[in-house]
Amino acid sequence: MTEVITTRREALKGCALAGAAALAAGAGLSAAPARAAAALQGPARPVIYRFGFGAFEVTTILDGAIQLEGPYPIFGEDQFEEDVKAFAEQNFLPPGMMEIAFTVTLVNTGEKLVMFDSGNGAGRRPNAGHLRNLVTEAGLSPDAVDIVAMTHFHPDHIGGLAEEGAAAFPDAEYCFPSTEYDFWSPPEVAEAEATARVGKLVQSNVVPQAEKARMIGGGDAVVSGIEAMDAFGHTPGHTVYHVESEGKRLLLGGDFCNHYVMSLAQPEWHVRFDMDKDGAVATRKALLSMLAAERIPFVGYHMPFPAVGYVEEADGAYRYVPASYQMNL
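and the corresponding structure tokens:
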């Protein structure tokens, strides 16, 4: 007959003795190796984000990303290395490595599908350069792009204009910032050592599309509701785009800010990729001030995907506030 334990003290004593016996019995057994229920799949990240914006529809697509040494001297080129590294650590960033992402934006106005920049193209595969496939994955088609509007002509923005020598978006017209085109398009730019890398790509990817391009400047409309704004400094003709629909406003910022911490919290620090350092600082500060004061969201080509956020004044500079659910409402 089994004895029934009737007191709490006896119950606890019994549990303790049983546990000790089990440990003793198992001490001589080899432990079986732990097994995961499923195989490791490797990293994954979202690459397509879409939201309504007034009567428009905005899609951001992650063309890819690269990891490299930084943030110094890419950011804070005019600062002491140890200061930049310390600032990175203060902001929960590795002091010696960084990631640069590439986000292309498409705006569907209901009448025109406008794409801003073209991604990296074949030159940066496999890490980036998959825009055409991703446009299809987003439910659109490269053939459906009506206009490609460029912010500037750096390789990570024009590399995707051509695929195997042919136009990657064959039915599109183009909007090229005239100052940018005038600077980069002369053949001698492709021959000069300092500008050859970009100049050669401009000759192969941009110049052949000039006959289908409209040269634009600040104040010119791409289509109704989308207007170019001069934002020189990063390159001679760097251009951003102001989007407005049904009272909502959005800035497509290209490369006026290239890092969500360094560019906003330290807007005066020099950036290696800015061709006119002081001009880029002035543009950066002016646009950040506008975005913060007028509470306008912006898409940054190199902001963390989905690359949509706000700017807040903080400690005499600015702070990046990633959009959460605002665009979904």
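(Above: one complete record from the training split.) Residues 53 and 245 are 7 Å apart (CA to CA).
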